[in-house]
TrEMBL record:
Superkingdom per UniProt: Eukaryota
UniProt cross-references to Gene3D superfamilies, sorted A to Z: TPP helical domain
Official protein name in the record: Uncharacterized protein
Biased composition (Polar residues): 1-11
Length: 72
């Protein structure tokens, strides 16, 4: 009968140590590093796109069902 602490490969399901009940959090994984910096022009483009996403619906004149009465 196999031990409950080990899987079929012989690896443990937990990392022994001095953490809570012998469990330690996994070490941080490698973080994605950007290849290039954010240029001022690109930053302005991103800011403009986010502004349209956030506030564009306020200026949109949409009435797909034609429910709004048009004043003449």
């Amino acid at each position: 009968m196999k031990s409950m602490e080990k899987n079929t490969n012989g690896q443990r399901f937990y990392r022994p140590g001095h953490g809570v009940f012998g469990h330690l959090p996994d070490p941080p994984k490698k973080v994605f590093e950007s290849q290039g910096g954010l240029t001022p022009e690109t930053a302005q483009r991103v800011h403009l796109i986010n502004a349209f996403r956030r506030y564009g619906y306020l200026e949109a004149q949409l009435d797909p069902l034609g429910l709004k009465q048009v004043e003449k």
